[in-house]
Design goal:
Strand order of the largest sheet of chain B: 1-2-3-8
CATH superfamily of one domain in chain B: MetI-like
Membrane topology (chain B): Multi-pass membrane protein
Largest interface: A-B, 55 and 55 residues
Order of helices and strands of chain B: HHHHHEEEEHHEEEEHHHHH
CATH class of one domain in chain B: Mainly Alpha
Number of strands of chain A: 0
CATH architecture of one domain in chain B: Orthogonal Bundle
Keywords (chain B): Amino-acid transport, Cell membrane, Membrane, Transmembrane, Transmembrane helix, Transport
CATH superfamily of the largest domain in chain A: MetI-like
GO molecular function, one term (chain B): transmembrane transporter activity
Radius of gyration of chain A: 29 Å
Radius of gyration of chain B: 29 Å
Largest sheet of chain B: 4 strands, antiparallel
Protein name (chain B): Amino acid ABC transporter permease
Shape of chain B: globular
Strand content of chain A: under 5%
Number of domains of chain A: 2
Organism (chain B): Zhengella mangrovi
Distance between the termini of chain B: 50 Å
Number of helices of chain B: 12
Distance between the termini of chain A: 62 Å
Oligomer: heterodimer
Helix content of chain A: 55-70%
Number of helices of chain A: 15
Structural class of chain A: mainly alpha
Largest sheet of chain A: none
Structural class of chain B: alpha+beta
Helix content of chain B: 55-70%
Chain lengths: 385, 396
């Protein structure tokens, strides 16, 4: 009836307009993230100046001026110091790292027997990588091989004494090998032992509870150096005459006990975060104590504290460097030992060796922390608050 | 009727005491206790026998005998004729010095870096991230070595010292600073500082009460700064500038005068502070991120400026999250100061190690270590617990 219907209904959507150029160009990003305000601009400029001041000399020292080849200290020393470099030269001495590389890996392990270390290392990484990759099947078998068979295999290979393998005493062990042995054993011992301690601390039995609390608090209250000293000077006093412990074994006991106390506190945090209803639910189903813990509580609690557990692992990996103080030569110790090697002693050797060792430690620790983030995301079942 | 049946069943089911958790608990505890007693007895008898054979008298009498070794850094009087007990005290003071300086620096650097990681500025954010990721993932001992062997020991000889501004020198024997020599009447300045602190405390209380009563804010911060700088300055002028500087002078082979900060202390201090700062930065970041976004929005809605928002709303709440892990970082720093032994800074562990080698009193030395470190840990935790309780949420 109405002739002129003035209402207007749009039947199709307008295409989304492109953002204004001033909002999406590089310039906009820079303005927003670097020069948003006066304070921001000042800070950016200061930071840029600092980078320009520090980074080029650092890169220069690390790569450009660095000496990559050479056979002795003369390659890394200035003429005034009796070398071949100009007097104002300063650069990393990678030739030192190159010539000592194998020693940094295995220490003073006899050269003829080093293949045993390589085989063990190959087995280690060959079992660890599928263990850590979620998509690889047969995790159970892998775990048995890694935590059950591999330690025996590694002991036989590294120490020898059976199957015609020559015995290599542990004082000859060193380098990254010792670091990895200490960390592997530390991790394998401290997790179960830490769980037991944490359960003990939350137990209803007063004797066990106070025992666990005393152990945890005393160990956490003192530095690892003290614990290592204790393991190296007091353990021999505690044992009957004639019974001696290997030095490496003593360090292992010290590191493992120390890490267990920290692990116990991490696990306790997880146990406390589980709602009481879960405990009561398990009780009402008629589960016994160990069934309750193994099937209901620990799987949830441990998942909650993965970051804490991995942090403890990282801390322990870094702490293994302390065995240097009781006279063992792990990666850091062997690098440190080589500073005094007269063939290579120069002003640049210590810094180069330490940068190298730091890089190796960094790769392992950074890898562990990234893996823990990955695992945390994967295991996240959405129950987190 | 059914209920009587059930209760009857229960009566018969509990027949076997073997399955009673209470009985089992007691049995387990008795077994563990007996095992522990046996272990302690075994260890003690072995130790007594070993000590007897090695001809070492147990007990703490050795603390009174002559030490016979020198210590590199002696904050209180000590010579090689002093006793072992005094050596231990020196070691303890040195531990406290480096731990205290380290905690102070680590806190400042850590807070700055932690805030930097949350900055809107991309460059600052990335620099802070790189710093944290590098220092968190390398062992502290390596950082100490890096400073000691990599940087400080390759500095020039004292003869060719690097001139720093303000009359300071840098060489491979450490850093030489001008030393302040306080003259007559300097005590008045210290008194002025104490008076200023008390005055600030009173002003704060008065301002708080006035704001509660009238709503009028009072510029407490600027008043405090003014008091803290002004009063000592006034005392300084009144007493006639009783301050001279003992500036280090370049001699033929070494520097004379001034205040020498040794490379051992410097390496340990720098390494511990920068290592721990990376962890503190992460704690601070987590603390600030842990405050709900609604708090910021609500305070903006109330009309608070960004500065006021962070000072009055965000930081007080973030502190509650930050303090407990911060405490454990302080404790870690204190414990890590025992790494001093690796470069020869005479802290408690280094001094104790020397004493141990000289006397063979392993058990006594380790007990002293444990007691001191446990005491330090306990002291720090008590203080931080008090601080935490003060900051904690007051709920009705």
């Amino acid at each position: 009836m109405q002739e002129h219907d003035l209402s207007y209904v749009r039947m199709e959507m307008i295409n989304a307009q492109a953002a204004p150029v001033s909002e999406k160009s590089w310039g906009a990003w820079i303005r927003k993230n670097l020069f948003a305000s006066v304070t921001d601009s000042t800070m950016t400029l200061i930071a840029l100046a600092a980078i320009l001041y520090f980074l080029p000399p650092m890169l220069n020292w690390l790569f450009v001026s660095a000496q990559y080849t050479g056979t002795d200290r003369t390659f890394c020393a200035t003429e005034a110091q009796g070398g071949i470099q100009p007097n104002d030269w300063a650069g990393a001495c990678w030739a030192f790292v190159g010539s000592k590389f194998e020693q940094f890996l295995v220490g003073r392990y006899p050269i003829a027997e080093r293949w045993r270390v390589w085989v063990t290392g190959l087995a280690f990484f060959g079992l660890m990588i599928p263990m850590l990759t979620p998509s690889v099947p047969r995790k159970g078998l892998n775990a048995i091989l890694f935590f059950g068979v591999f330690p025996v295999f590694a002991f036989i290979m590294l120490y020898g004494g059976i199957f015609g393998l020559e015995v290599v005493e542990t004082p000859l062990w060193g380098g990254l090998m010792v670091t990895l042995v200490l960390s592997f054993v530390g991790i394998a011992v401290s997790l179960p032992f830490g769980i037991v301690l944490a359960l003990g601390r939350r137990s209803n039995m007063p004797v066990i509870k106070s025992l666990c609390i005393t152990f945890i608090e005393v160990v956490r209250g003192v530095p690892l150096v003290t614990v290592l000293f204790m393991a190296s000077v007091m353990l021999p006093l505690f044992l009957p005459q004639g019974v001696t412990f290997d030095k490496l074994l003593r360090a292992l006991i010290g590191v493992a006990l120390f890490a267990s106390a920290y692990m116990a506190e991490v696990v306790r945090g997880g146990l406390q975060a589980i709602p009481k209803g879960q405990y009561e639910g398990a009780d009402s189903l008629g589960l016994g104590y160990w069934q309750k813990m193994n099937l209901i509580i620990l799987p949830q609690a441990l998942k909650l504290v993965i970051p804490g557990i991995v942090n403890t692992f990282i801390g322990m990996f870094k702490d293994t460097s302390l065995v240097y103080i009781i006279g063992m030569f792990d990666l850091l110790g062997i690098v440190r030992l080589n500073f005094s090697d007269s063939t290579w002693a120069s002003a640049q050797t210590p810094a180069t060796g330490l940068v190298f060792a730091g890089f190796i430690f960094w790769i392992f620790c950074f890898g562990m922390s990234r893996y823990s983030i990955f695992m945390e995301r994967r295991l996240d079942t959405g129950h987190k608050r | 009727m059914a209920s009587t049946d059930i209760s009857g069943d229960r009566g018969s089911a509990s027949a076997s005491w073997f399955y009673d958790p209470k009985v089992r608990g007691i049995v387990y505890q008795v077994l563990v206790f007996a095992g522990l007693v046996a272990l302690v007895w075994w260890i003690t008898s072995n130790t007594i026998e070993n000590l007897h054979r090695a001809n070492i008298a147990s007990g703490y009498d050795f603390l009174n005998s002559r030490a016979g070794f020198d210590i590199g850094q002696t904050p209180v009087d000590y010579t090689s004729d002093s006793t072992y007990g005094r050596a231990f005290i020196i070691g303890m003071i040195n531990t406290v010095i480096v731990a205290f300086a380290g905690v102070l620096t680590a806190t400042i650097v850590g807070f700055l870096v932690g805030l930097g990681r949350l900055s809107h500025n991309w460059l600052i954010r990335k620099i802070c991230m790189v710093y944290v990721e590098i220092f968190r993932n390398i062992p502290p001992l390596l950082v100490i070595f890096f400073w000691y062997f990599g940087v400080l020991s390759v500095l020039p000889q004292p003869r060719d010292s690097v001139d720093l501004p303000l009359g300071a020198f840098l060489n491979n024997r450490g850093i030489f600073l001008p030393r302040a020599v306080w003259g007559e009447g300097a005590g008045l300045i210290a008194i002025a500082i104490l008076v200023a602190i008390v005055a600030i405390f009173l002003v704060r209380r008065w301002a708080w009460q006035r704001q509660m009563a009238t709503g009028q804010p009072f510029p407490v911060l600027w008043t405090s700064v003014g008091l803290l700088i002004g009063l000592p300055l006034l005392a300084f002028i009144v007493t006639g500038f009783p301050l001279t500087w003992d500036i280090p002078e370049l001699g033929r082979f070494n520097l004379r005068g001034g205040l020498q900060v040794k490379p051992e202390f410097l390496s340990l201090y720098l390494a511990l502070s920068f290592y721990t700062a990376a962890f503190i930065a992460e704690i601070v970041r987590a603390g600030i991120l842990g405050v709900a976004k609604g708090q910021t929005e609500a305070s903006y809605a109330l009309g608070l400026r960004p500065g006021q928002t962070s000072r009055l709303v965000i930081v007080p709440q973030a502190m509650r999250i930050v303090i407990p892990p911060l405490t454990s970082q302080y404790l870690n720093l204190t414990k890590n100061s025992s790494l001093a032994i690796a470069i020869g800074y005479p802290d408690l562990v280094a001094v104790g190690g020397t004493v141990l080698n000289q006397t063979g009193q392993a058990i006594e030395v380790v007990v002293i270590w444990m007691v001191v470190y446990l005491g330090l840990s306990l002291g720090t935790s008590l203080f931080m617990n008090w601080f935490n309780a003060k900051m904690a949420l007051v709920e009705r």
